[in-house]
């Protein structure tokens, strides 16, 4: 599956699960892509802000993420770096529990669901494991999230993937545009630009 380059900017409105907004800017680099984003939201009566800068190589494999979060409980930062072969360091500490993860998935972000889709380039009917380094929105806790994606037929012309995250007992159909960016994440977010 080939994708066009992402636009210079994109935005999502968070719906149902939380109220808020995410704005993202894409920049090409010599190695691939740099993505700057910010999400603000209120969820379960708690507000938070997450700013991030993520570096990807040309194949959309995460290379690093620098994340800053603010909430009523204070300000936090995380620096997450990988060697590209599925080995990670969080704030300079080797994190073997994350071995095998190829992507970063920010709980606060609809955009980061683009990484496995663009990296895997699945063909219809193929299901792939896509474990990710998962960063919680409110406190920037880092954990492993096992998840799967499967490209399914869609008559509307959009790319749709059957998504599942067993740890959350969650599954849905995710709709993507031709740049491999999430268009509709049922109950979570919808793309507005």
The helix/strand class is: mainly beta
Count of runs of 4 or more consecutive helical residues: 1
- The string of secondary-structure elements, in order, is EEEEEEEEEHEEEEEEEE
Q: Tell me the Rg in angstroms.
A: 16 Å
- Summed up, the domain count is 1
Strand arrangement within the widest β-sheet reads 8-7-6-5-4-3-2-1-17-16-15-14-13-10
The total beta strand count reads 17
Task: Give the termini distance in whole angstroms.
Answer: 23 Å
Principal-axis shape: globular
Helix content: under 10%
Mean pLDDT: 96
Question: What's the main sheet like?
Answer: 14 strands, antiparallel
Low-pLDDT stretches are none
Taken as a percent bin, the fraction of beta residues is: over 45%
Protein name: Putative glycolipid-binding domain-containing protein
Organism: Streptomyces bathyalis
InterPro entries: Glycolipid-bd_prot_put
Question: What labels describe this entry?
Answer:
single chain; 193 residues; mainly beta; 14-stranded antiparallel β-sheet; three-stranded mixed β-sheet; 1 helix; 17 strands; 4% helix; globular
Structural summary, described in words:
- It is built from 1 helix and 17 strands.
- It is mainly β and 193 residues long.
- The protein has one domain.
- Strand 13 and strand 14 form a beta hairpin.
- It is globular.
- The mean pLDDT is 96.
